[in-house]
Fold:
Amino acid sequence: MAESNEESTVAQTAVIETDPNKLTNARVLTTLQQLFGEDAFTDVEEPYGLLTATTTRERIHEIIQTLHGEPILQFNFLTTMCGIHYPENEGQELGVIYHLHSLVHNVRLRLKIFFPIIDPAVPTLTDIYATANWMERETFDFFGIIFTGHPNLIRILNVEDMDYHPMRREYPLEDGTREDKTDLFFGR
Amino acid sequence: MAVNDTLEGTHKIHQEAREQQHNQLVPTLNDFSQELTTLNLGPTHPATHGIFQNILQMDGERIISGVPTIGYIHRAFEKIAERRPFYQITPLTDRMNYCSSPINNMGWHMTVEKLLGITVPKRAQYMRVIMMELARITDHLICNSILGVDTGAFTGFLYVFQEREKVYEIYEEVCGARLTTNMGRVGGMERDFSPVAIEKLRKWLKEFPAVMREFESMFTRNRIFMDRVVNVGPISAEKALNYGFTGPNLRAAGVDYDVRVMNPYSSYEDFDFEIPVGTNGDTYDRFLVRNEEIWQSLRIINQALDNLPEGPYHADAPHYYLPPKQAVYKNMEALIYHFKIIMGEIEAPVGEVYHSVEGGNGELGFYLISDGGRTPYRLHFRRPCFIYYQAYSEMVVGTSLSDAIVILSSMNVIAGELDA
Structure:
């Protein structure tokens, strides 16, 4: 079993390497830069083989719509979405990170956007992916990011009458008034 | 003859009375705004197999709309993970999909290994594959047998639960725990398979297929079962993809996406197995896909066990892998590493990594951002249940209450994973 498989996979990889239509990270990036201009993406890197780029919230909807619809890209699957909070980055405190997957070509892509915490509004993706609905509700619930255009932006995991967004960094895990326990090892 | 005549006569009278009653009710029934019933399905309902609520608007037996409420057992795992060293996060993953905890544990270990750049020896990878496939079998067994219970067949459930019990005994032999396993370590397994474990596994592999065949013959072509599940809750491939379905639910709709094949991890590329797919994504297809996956998992386990390579069962990564306890008493380095690992004083490199494994329900992803500290800066779990459960409210519209129960259990929604 092992030997025959090995041969076929070697043959396959040889074909893939010479195939000009094979979608690679580099091709995704050049296509995107052709469509939206070089300056649309910053901090382009490939940590552990996953193409990562940062863009702006003004363009994110347009970019993901193109990624979804463009026949050569076909990023038809929104794997996951999550919020992040960097309190030290003045004016860019909050962020949303999207993981997209082109199931046809088996290429993954990570897109990030950052924006100020005083104006946490981001366009919704629910018109492109139905699955964005609960992901955005979760991100809103934990980070207080407002997804404009979302049909039903209410809390999902926490109780309705909670008056803060618990995944933000200013909310410590344990009760800050506790004095019986000093946390020297894991304190940040 | 006389008895039959009377019976027929009674039937006729009854039918006439029913028709008359129905005719009287029709005008009000058509007026939806007047006669809708609100039904709270859950939060604690024996048929939902977990704590989540659906507020159903019903017109008689027919469901007009369903609004799900979730979060009843939300335990803030992502927040807790921000304050825990990596090895202390493994028990959190146990409690997500508790029907297949080894997959969650090992998915998390592989994520950390990817971040740290640890290569796990072949033997440990094969051992992981065996445990993960066992977990997949138990997960699917629970889902399918519970589907049987919801359609009125309790026997199959009790019957396969015996087999699940035997798998749990194998877990116990391998890691000491049964349900929330906390199995393995960052860098490999915490101990080698004992001879007893191998023996139990071989015995189970010999006995289980007969049970599985009986289970299948009880349901697969059973008229009563098929009447309840065929064409109930179908979903098209496009819609399933758009809703972010993964795992058996997506494959039942006809998309052959499986992380084990698309992005192989832990040496899955070494094994010969097939990905079963369904056609119209209804409850019956989901049932059949899960059954077939059990057979394929058995194939993988047999191959892995027969070709189990010799060698170490963990990577040589002293900074992250706990030294043997005996060495801690005698050897200074071992004591230092033991102390540092237990106290969480090991710093991880800066980086961000996304790793996904094929969980019992679909793509279970871990997105880990490390800022060079001792704990993750941010850890996000892609929980397949949470993502595909949002399609439920659309899938139940137009079905009856009994169908809604069957759809729910065939989707295999695990409350622990749903709420994190």
